[in-house]
From TrEMBL, chain A:
This is Uncharacterized protein. It comes from Sulfitobacter mediterraneus. It comes from the Bacteria.
TrEMBL record, chain B:
It is a multi-pass membrane protein. It comes from the Bacteria. One of its GO terms (cellular component) is formate dehydrogenase complex. Keywords: Cell membrane, Electron transport, Heme, Iron, Membrane, Metal-binding, Signal, Transmembrane, Transmembrane helix, Transport. The lineage of its organism: Bacteria, Pseudomonadati, Pseudomonadota, Alphaproteobacteria, Rhodobacterales. Belongs to the formate dehydrogenase gamma subunit family. It comes from Sulfitobacter mediterraneus. It is found in: Cell membrane. This is Formate dehydrogenase gamma subunit. Residues 46-68 are annotated as: Disordered. Residues 1-20 form the signal peptide. InterPro entries: Cyt_b561_bac/Ni-Hgenase, Di-haem_cyt_TM, FDH_cytochrome_b556_subunit, Formate_DH_gsu. The keyword Transport applies.
Length: 45, 395
C-alpha cells in the first residue's frame, strides 16, 4: 500500500512541477500563440 | 482481420464512405455547383468538387492583366475558391504557417466526427465492456484459490515495481476520467448540473489532463524497462491459451511471472499507451510535432490503403488538420485502452481472489502463486526467494 500511495503523491508532484516548469519555460498556449496585442486572461478584465 | 481493422480505423478518421463518386453533369450551371451538389453535401455524401477546386483563375491567361486591379485577371470568386480549397498563396506577417490557413473546412468534419461517431462508438464500447464484465462475473463468479492457503508468502512485486504500476495506473485513471469529461461534459454534465459546473470541471480536467500526462509517460517507461523481459512470448503461453488460462473451466495452466493474458495486457498498454503518449505530446505542443502527413505518406508507399480498397491517404495536411488527426487518433487509442484496462481492473480486483495482494502488499500466498504462476514459484524457490513469511490478510 505504501508504494501505491507514494506513487499517487508522485503523480501530484510531477503534475505541479510540469505545470510550473512549462509555464516558466514559455510553453503556455498564451505565450506561444498570442502576442501582446491579444487580450487574454487577467489583462482582459 | 488486420485489414478490416485498418480499414475501419482509417474510414472512421477520414470520414470516408465507400460510395463511388461520379462526375455530375454541370453544363446547366456552366460548371458551377448545382442544386444536386448542395443537397448531396447537406446529406453528408461526397461531392466531386474537382471543377470548383481547380477554378481559381489564371492571370496570365487574361489579356492586359497587368493593367487590372490588385487581383490582376482573377475574379473575387476565384480568389475565395483558392482560399477555401487551400491553394491560395497566402502570406502573413506573423503566426507562421498556421496563420496562413484562412479557411479550414476540415474543422467541421472533425467536429461532427468528434460529436457523433466518437462519442457514440466510444461510449458504447466502454458501457459494453462493463456490461460484459458484469455478465461474466454473474456466470463465472470469482476465481477462487482452490488449494488451502499455506500461510507462507512469496514476494510477487518489489516496491519499485508496484510504484511504477500505480504511477501508470493512477495517472491513467485520472487521464481517462478527465478525457471523458472533456468529451462528454457538454452532453451529460451541462444539461443537468449547468454550464457553470461543466465549465469549472472542464477547466480542471484540462489542467489535470495536460500535466498528469507526464506521470503517465514516466510510468509507461518504468513498466516497460522493468517487465519487458518477462513479457516475451514463450511456449508456456500456448498451453495457457489452450486452457483459456483457467478463467473458463477448472484447470490452472502453469505460467511464469506473467501468463499469456497478462502479456497481452502488457503489450496492449505499451503499444496503445505509447501511441496515446506520442499523439498527446503532439497535442500538448500544437503545430510543433506534426505526425500524420508523414505517416500517411509511408502507409501510401507501403500500399496499405490500396490493400483495403481505399484511395491513397492525404499527404498534404494543413497544420490544423494535423491536430485534428492527432486528437482523433489519441481518442480512438484511449477508448480501446480504457476498455482493455477495465477488464484488467476486474481481474485484478473482484474477478480473482488474492490477485490484488500482488500489487497491494507485493506478497502473495504460495497457494495462489502455485495455482496461477507455478513455473515462476518454482523458479523463486530455486533461487532461494521463498523464505517463509507471515501471510498478510487481503487488503
Amino acid at each position: 500500500m505504501k508504494a501505491m500511495f507514494t506513487s499517487f503523491a508522485a503523480i501530484i508532484v510531477i503534475a505541479v512541477v510540469a505545470s510550473f516548469g512549462l509555464e516558466r519555460a514559455g510553453f503556455s498556449s498564451e505565450e506561444v500563440n498570442a502576442g501582446a496585442s491579444v487580450r487574454l486572461g487577467k489583462d482582459s478584465q | 482481420m488486420l485489414r478490416v481493422a485498418l480499414a475501419l480505423v482509417l474510414s472512421l478518421m477520414l470520414g470516408l464512405t465507400a460510395q463511388a463518386q461520379t462526375t455530375p453533369d454541370r453544363s446547366a450551371t456552366g460548371g458551377a455547383q448545382t442544386l444536386a451538389d448542395i443537397l448531396a453535401r447537406q446529406r453528408g455524401e461526397p461531392v466531386d468538387d474537382t471543377a470548383m477546386r481547380n477554378d481559381t483563375g489564371n492571370s496570365e491567361d487574361v489579356a492586359g492583366a497587368a493593367q487590372l486591379g490588385p487581383l490582376g485577371g482573377t475574379s473575387d470568386p476565384e480568389v475565395w475558391r483558392a482560399i477555401r480549397y487551400g491553394s491560395a498563396e497566402t502570406r502573413v506577417s506573423a503566426g507562421g504557417e498556421v496563420a496562413s490557413v484562412l479557411v479550414q473546412d476540415g474543422g467541421m468534419k472533425w467536429l461532427s466526427w468528434r460529436d457523433g461517431p466518437l462519442r457514440t462508438y466510444g461510449g458504447w464500447l466502454l458501457l459494453g465492456t462493463l456490461g460484459a464484465l458484469v455478465l461474466f462475473y454473474l456466470l463465472r463468479g470469482r476465481i477462487r484459490i482452490d488449494e488451502e492457503m499455506t500461510g507462507r508468502t512469496v514476494t510477487r512485486f518489489k516496491a519499485v515495481e508496484r510504484f511504477g504500476h500505480w504511477l501508470l495506473a493512477g495517472s491513467f485513471v485520472l487521464l481517462g476520467l478527465t478525457g471523458l469529461v472533456s468529451l462528454f461534459g457538454r452532453v451529460f454534465i451541462a444539461p443537468y448540473l449547468g454550464r457553470e459546473v461543466n465549465a469549472t470541471l472542464l477547466n480542471a480536467s484540462k489542467w489535470i489532463h495536460n500535466n498528469v500526462a507526464w506521470a503517465f509517460i514516466i510510468g509507461l517507461v518504468m513498466i516497460f524497462v522493468m517487465w519487458v523481459v518477462h513479457n516475451i512470448p514463450n511456449r508456456s503461453d500456448i498451453t495457457w491459451l489452450r486452457q483459456f488460462g483457467g478463467i473458463i473451466g477448472k484447470d490452472h495452466p502453469p505460467a511464469k511471472k506473467f501468463n499469456a493474458g497478462q502479456k497481452m495486457i502488457f503489450w496492449s498498454v505499451i503499444v496503445f499507451g505509447t501511441s496515446i503518449a506520442i499523439s498527446g505530446v503532439s497535442l500538448l505542443f500544437p503545430y510543433e510535432l506534426p505526425l500524420f502527413a508523414k505517416t500517411f505518406a509511408i502507409l501510401n508507399d507501403l500500399g496499405l490503403p490500396g490493400l483495403v480498397g481505399m484511395e491513397p491517404l492525404p499527404v498534404l495536411l494543413s497544420p490544423q488538420e494535423e491536430m485534428q488527426f492527432a486528437q482523433g487518433w489519441h481518442a480512438i487509442m484511449a477508448f480501446v485502452l480504457m476498455a482493455i484496462i477495465l477488464a484488467h481492473i476486474y481481474i485484478g480486483s473482484v474477478g480473482m481472489e488474492g490477485a490484488y495482494d500482488a500489487m497491494g502488499t507485493g506478497e502473495v500466498d504460495e497457494a495462489w502463486a502455485h495455482q496461477h504462476h507455478s513455473i515462476w514459484l518454482d523458479e523463486m524457490k530455486e533461487a532461494g526467494n521463498d523464505a517463509p513469511q507471515k501471510a498478510h490478510p487481503a487488503e
